[in-house]
Structure formats: structure tokens, C-alpha cells
């Protein structure tokens, strides 16, 4: 392809992306007419944009993808949607029975789960989160197992091979996790590739996976795929999560609880 043709293709991709983001959904025929190129050319362009994670192709057209932005540090996020996270945390804790072994992942919502465990008896909690470990360290009713690993400072979490190897030797009744982005099409996704590798092992360490997520996490896609949505057995969210999203999640066989 000549340099001039490459430049025209780049300009056309930018035009397509602008139109899709503006309208959210647009048909191939409309793009062909507006840009003055053939439908096969448009389909090739859409394939390129989809491979870049910028759009999602659908029958006869294309839809915009909302890309999750990089998360601020966990300390900063702890004050965002705090009331919703506290309600979600209490709802998740209510599902935990005395005597169970649970894995509790990193994040601000999972920290609220840890805070709500007060009063539980004879629990074993496995965690890769420093803030969760600190919260639970003084509770004599909890046997606390800390995975070790490489500290991801912004998240107060431990990731990498040490965590993954430790979890391969352990089993939990329930794994309670949070996630950067949740999409019906792309499933569970995260921003950090190393953290994603650890997350893939986490969701395999328990018989039941419970996802805790406020409404801001849904309908978004981040860089790295962790697992399909059907990996999750229960989702606990807040009352602001859209009804159509809840219905589609339930249609996948996932139990959804609104706190």
C-alpha cells in the first residue's frame, strides 16, 4: 500500500470512529454512503477498529465501546461511591457462613466486605490485599492466610508468580473479587496485564465466585481479559446499575443481588 493510501485509510478510520462514538450505533450502509467507499472497505476498516478494541461489530453495523480509564490509586478510590460500596460489602458478608474458607481480593469494595466480617466465627480468609490483611489481622475469629507476592503499590495488592503458586495449593468455598470493567460481550477485564494473570488464577481457586461491583464498572472494557462473565456465580451491585444490564446478567444464569 502506498503512503498516500495509508494516510487515507488512517483518516477514514478516524472518521468512522468519530461517527460511531457520536451515534453509539451505526449501520455499515450508512458509513458507506457518508464516506463514499464500498461496504467491503467499511467492513475491513471495522475489523481493524475492533481488533484495536475501539468498536464492536454487530450484524449489519457497529457499536461504540466505552473504554475503562486508568484507575486512580486505591486510597483515592476509597472515598468514591463509598455508601454504595459499604452496602455491597455488607450484602456480600451476609452470604458468608461461619466456618467457611473464603478468598478476598484487592480493591475498595472488597475492603468493605472485610470490614463487614466482624462477628463471623471460625473463618479462614485468604487474601492478596495488604489493606484487607491489615483490616483482619486483629480478628481472633479469623485465620488469616496472606499469599505473598510482588506488591502493586497503587492497589495495596500482591500479584505475580508467588501469589499464583500459593493459590494453586489452596481451595476456598467462595472467592469474593472486584474488577476494573465488566462487559456483557468482553466479560471481566482489567488494566494491568500482570494483575490479570493473577486474577485468572484467583477465579479458579474457589467453588463459588462472587463479584462485588458498583454501577460505574458495568458496560466498560479494559485492556486485558480475565474471564468470561459466566465464570461468576453471583454479582452484588448497587441500585444504580441499569435494569437492562441486570436482566441480561440474569439471563446468563448469574444470580444478581442489589444492595
UniProtKB/TrEMBL annotation:
Highest rank taxon of the organism: Bacteria
InterPro entries for the chain: ArsR-like_HTH, Carb_Metab_HTH_regulators, DeoR-like_C, DeoR_HTH, NagB/RpiA_transferase-like, Tscrpt_reg_HTH_DeoR_CS, WH-like_DNA-bd_sf, WH_DNA-bd_sf
Molecular function GO terms recorded: DNA binding; DNA-binding transcription factor activity
Keywords from the named record: DNA-binding, Transcription, Transcription regulation
Gene3D superfamilies reported for this sequence: 3.40.50.1360, Winged helix-like DNA-binding domain superfamily/Winged helix DNA-binding domain
Pfam families the UniProt entry points to: DeoRC, HTH_DeoR
SMART domains referenced in this protein's UniProt entry, alphabetically: DeoRC, HTH_DEOR
Every HTH deoR-type domain range: 9-64
Name of the protein this chain belongs to: Transcriptional regulator, DeoR family
Taxonomic placement: Bacteria, Bacillati, Chloroflexota, Ktedonobacteria, Ktedonobacterales
Amino acid at each position: 500500500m502506498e503512503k498516500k493510501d495509508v494516510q487515507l485509510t488512517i483518516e477514514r478510520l478516524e472518521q468512522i470512529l468519530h461517527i460511531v462514538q457520536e451515534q453509539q450505533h451505526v449501520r455499515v450502509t450508512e458509513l458507506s454512503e457518508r464516506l463514499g467507499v464500498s461496504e467491503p472497505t467499511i467492513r475491513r476498516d471495522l475489523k481493524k477498529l475492533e481488533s484495536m478494541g475501539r468498536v464492536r461489530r454487530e450484524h449489519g453495523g457497529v457499536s461504540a465501546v466505552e473504554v475503562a480509564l486508568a484507575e486512580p490509586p486505591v486510597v483515592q478510590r476509597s472515598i468514591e461511591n463509598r455508601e454504595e460500596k459499604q452496602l455491597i460489602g455488607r450484602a456480600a458478608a451476609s452470604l458468608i457462613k461461619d466456618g467457611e474458607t473464603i478468598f478476598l481480593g484487592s480493591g475498595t469494595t472488597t475492603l468493605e466486605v472485610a470490614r463487614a466480617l466482624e462477628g463471623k466465627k471460625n473463618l479462614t480468609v485468604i487474601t492478596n490485599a495488604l489493606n484487607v490483611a491489615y483490616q483482619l489481622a486483629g480478628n481472633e475469629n479469623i485465620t488469616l492466610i496472606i499469599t505473598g507476592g510482588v506488591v502493586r503499590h497503587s492497589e495495596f495488592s500482591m500479584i505475580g508468580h508467588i501469589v499464583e503458586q500459593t493459590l494453586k495449593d489452596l481451595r476456598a468455598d467462595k472467592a469474593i473479587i472486584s474488577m476494573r470493567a465488566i462487559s456483557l460481550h468482553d466479560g471481566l477485564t482489567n488494566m494491568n496485564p500482570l494483575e490479570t494473570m493473577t486474577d485468572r488464577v484467583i477465579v479458579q481457586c474457589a467453588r463459588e465466585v462472587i463479584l462485588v461491583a458498583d454501577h460505574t464498572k458495568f458496560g466498560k472494557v479494559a485492556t486485558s481479559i480475565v474471564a468470561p462473565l459466566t465464570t461468576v456465580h453471583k454479582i452484588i451491585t448497587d441500585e444504580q446499575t441499569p435494569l437492562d444490564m441486570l436482566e441480561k446478567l440474569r439471563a446468563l444464569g448469574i444470580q444478581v443481588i442489589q444492595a
